[in-house]
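Box 3.1 A note on notation
Throughout this textbook, protein chains are presented in two layers. The first layer is the amino acid sequence; the second is a token string describing backbone geometry. Keep the layers aligned when reading.
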Amino acid sequence: MKSTPHKLIDFNIDDYQRLRQGAIETVSKRFYETYPELLDSFGARGVEATKEDIGFTLDFLRPAVEFGFIKPFNDYLSWLCEVLSTRGVSSQLVENMLDWLAEFFEAQSPNDLGNAISRTLKSSIKTLKSNKTTPSNIDQLMPQAWPETVELEQALICGNLKQAKRIIDHQIKSGKSLLDVELHLIQPALYQVGRDWQQNKVTVAQEHLATSTAIVLMAQEFGQVELGESNGKRVICACVEGNKHAVGLRIVADAFELNGWDVMFLGPDLPSKELIQQVSKSLPDMLCLSASMPEHLPVAKAAILEIHKALGNKAPAIMLGGLAVNAFSAISDEIGANLTASDAEKALTASLK
């Protein structure tokens, strides 16, 4: 579903970043003054986790205020409530955090920025209280998972590369393409790992092991397939600065290379300065950027603006994807992208238009 961007204010990044650390310190201190028993239950690691959660909340809040898209922020809050509840922490603490953040920004930034932040936070509190928060529809946009996804997930979280490869090779031998396997088996399996972590069923270490095993597996399988005939076009694929989640973009890169494109895969967390230099040097036909979290959207917007400034009418077509935009493709227009796609197959189709 698309929603229309509505920019609340002329967002001042410097003001927001200046206030961010103060908000984290002030609200985390208030938590432990109000709930001293939390320190007994979770100790010093709990204090650090609280600060991390407040920081992530502020990172998700920023694009909600800057671009006017509040549903991704509310989706994040629903996710946070579920994560905390599976770890024995009441979701009431999330509402308290939002209340205290609103008070902080009202006091420390009594201007358009503070008022806009406070309005957004209070709107989200009402949504949480009304129990009308619903999960993002990102999963609904993913290609249908095959039944073997369950077995593959278990192999990945155990780091059992041989078993995972047997599952994949069986599908390839039965006539499935590598792209289909990546879209309908590997990617859904990793999404399920993420959901299991959210529900406290797997550890962070298991999640990392699953991802690294999947990356090795994809590289092995890619080395065994025949590439399509060159179509003379070049694409650069990169995660914007700060985005360390590159598996989905790797699948996009594979899709393009399997279909004859010359692919430059620049991987995760590419500094914007380096991205702009590489695009200016290579002059690709297309640039595929991945933004996994809402906090990556302002980074993508700034990078795209600089690319257009540097190259003018020589700038490539720019496709924006990743979790941060999948459920809200209209936001790509606000950021300056020409195209958006929720998966590798759709990215390939969009590139032909």
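The first strand starts at residue 234 and ends at 239. Confidence is low (pLDDT under 50) at residues 1-8.
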